[in-house]
Amino acid sequence: MLITVPPGAQSEPHVHPVQGMNYIVEGAVESQYAGYPLQHYNAGDSYIDLAQVTHEVFRNPSNTQPLKFIVAFKIKKGVAFKQSVLPPSP
Fold first, then answer.
1. Most buried residue among 2, 43, 45, 58 by CB atoms closer than 10 A?
2. How far is 49 from 76, CA to CA, in rounded Å?
3. Angle ∠(40,44,46) on CA atoms, nearest 5
4. How does pLDDT run across 39-70, given as a tens digit for each residue?
5. Which domains does the chain have, with CATH numbers?
């Protein structure tokens, strides 16, 4: 999948049921998994999304440039790659 994240946007904490391979096409990302240090990746970098570990931080640190990245993964049909760890709102 090719994903575009607007400047300054961030994701809520979530988990991935399977590993994903990411390649940063444009911009930069800050990413942190529970128990791991904050990582910073730039265009041309690649990294692996961990499976079944809370993805606590995923954000586009730029206030002006979008983040574009490709993620590849193998998952059963109908299963979401990004699953919330927060309880549903009342």
1. 58
2. 17
3. 60
4. 999 999 999 999 999 999 999 999 999 999 99
5. 2-84 (2.60.120.10)
Q: Give the CB-side neighbour count of residue 19, counting CA atoms within 13 A.
A: 4
d(CA 21, CA 47): 6
Q: Six-digit token pair at 40?
A: 């910073």
| Amino acid, single-letter form, for residue 43 | A
Q: What's the pLDDT at 80? A: 78
Quick check: 21 pLDDT over 70?
yes
Q: What does the alpha-carbon distance between residue 73 and residue 7 come to, in Å, rounded to a whole number?
A: 25
Distance CA 85, CA 3 (A): 21
pLDDT recorded at residue 63: 97
Query: Do 2 and 42 touch, CB atoms closer than 8 A?
Result: no
pLDDT at 87 over 80: no
